[in-house]
TrEMBL record:
Keyword Oxidoreductase set for record: yes
Enzyme Commission number(s): 1.-.-.-
Listed cofactors: FAD
A single GO molecular function term of this UniProt record: oxidoreductase activity
Basic and acidic residues composition-biased segments: 68-82
Protein name per the record: Acyl-CoA dehydrogenase family protein
Residue ranges annotated for the Acyl-CoA oxidase/dehydrogenase middle domain, each copy included: 148-248
Keywords of the record: FAD, Flavoprotein, Oxidoreductase
InterPro entries the UniProt entry points to: Acyl-CoA_DH_CS, Acyl-CoA_Oxase/DH_mid-dom, Acyl-CoA_Oxase/DH_mid-dom_sf, AcylCo_DH-like_C, AcylCo_DH/oxidase_C, AcylCoA_DH/ox_N, AcylCoA_DH/ox_N_sf, AcylCoA_DH/oxidase_NM_dom_sf
Naturally occurring in which organism (per UniProt): Nocardia jiangxiensis
Keyword Protein biosynthesis: no
Domain of life: Bacteria
Amino acid sequence: MFEWSETDEMIRAAVRAFIDKEVRPHVDAMESGEMTPYPIIRKLFAEFGIDALGAESVEKMLAKERARAEAGADSEPKREKSSGGGPFGGQQSMMAVLIGELSGVCMGLVSAMGVSLGLGATTIMSRGTLAQKERWLADIVTMKKVAAWAITEPDSGSDAFGGMKTYVRRDGEDYILNGRKTFITNGPYADTVIVYAKLDEGDGADRRERKVLTFVLDKGMEGFSQGKPFRKMGLHASPTGELFFDNVRLGRDRLLGETEEHKGGDGRESARSSFTAERIGVAFMALGIINECHRLCIDYAKNRTLWGQEIGRFQLIQLKLAKMEVARINVQNMVFNALESTQAGKPPTLAEASAMKLYSSEAATEVAMDAIQLFGGNGYMTEYRVEQLARDAKSLMIYAGSNEIQVTHVAKGLLAQ
Ligand SMILES: Cc1cc2nc3c(=O)[nH]c(=O)nc-3n(C[C@H](O)[C@H](O)[C@H](O)COP(=O)(O)OP(=O)(O)OC[C@H]3O[C@@H](n4cnc5c(N)ncnc54)[C@H](O)[C@@H]3O)c2cc1C
């Protein structure tokens, strides 16, 4: 693959038309927090049939599992190898175009959507029992309900599992959950929340080594509260906040897999299995930011006149444009490679996805900062949009595992060869 297919380009044209009509007029309202991204995501889903596609693929999967259960087979799901597509398995190319186009205008919206589907729905899909999938999945993949995925805590970000303090204790057949999560995308508004917690068996075992269990909570449960959206540097359209658990009683039906001995390993494994897809998703978003900066900068370089000539004639401006082009080619090639290898049944490894995330997030941030410089004073003004792209891009270097952590994952892959 060296270029987007005709179908991809048709989708791009349709997505751009949707963005012009339904997203751009509301970017300021989402940036100020006056409006959440969810009504627009729902419109997008309806317009492009994404809700129907998601519902159909979930229904197909459930039908297969029901048949297996009726045939007497073990109904606990086998852990499926992630192809990076989440509930939209075979549609990665369409999702890449959609994510890229939206990210160039409002990356927060993509982030809110991506966490709900790519982390929320996918975790239930890969870890839940048939009954749990029937209970939660259809509403999430159609975006009727918004999901959040909560690992990070005030004292444990990069050291997510070792430092985790949120815990459950058994109480008869139930569990009692206590603790707190932070920086959770969709946290303030989520209807369904995947929560990772340590199992405290009261035996004084080393807290770092305790088993991690994964639960599903619903908004409004007694003892569960959701904080207000944080004020952030960028990504304003994506509400981020804290979650608090004060003696929340959880039945076993809320423990994903309904067993402490999940075939796919404990919650650590559950989270790790999402990393590859999440990191490839970051490259899709980075490409969107780069493409938009590239487009805006070329246009500005041709139209801004100083010293009697277009600024595009100045070599230092040309250097910025050339560096943007190199970044665009590199990140696009990485995206093409990931799409093609996934299609061929050989999706990127975790180390490769980490390398993509590391490079593409830095490239997008650098390109967007250069775009501000190229625009001069206008670049620093909200009206010209590149400052928003730079603020949004920076988040890509921090979430989905900070870039320092990506370095360790790339190196681990290399040293294991
Ligand atoms: C916008 C946004 C949305 C988010 N959404 C979610 C979400 O939906 N769910 C969720 O669970 N979390 C979410 N997070 C949290 C995110 O995953 C963490 O912020 C991230 O993992 C880093 O953790 P930390 O913030 O605690 O930084 P820390 O772990 O405290 O890191 C501080 C610094 O130390 C560096 N560092 C850490 N360990 C090492 C090491 N071994 N070697 C070298 N350097 C190291 C880090 O890279 C960083 O530069 C979100 C964060 C943001 C900003």
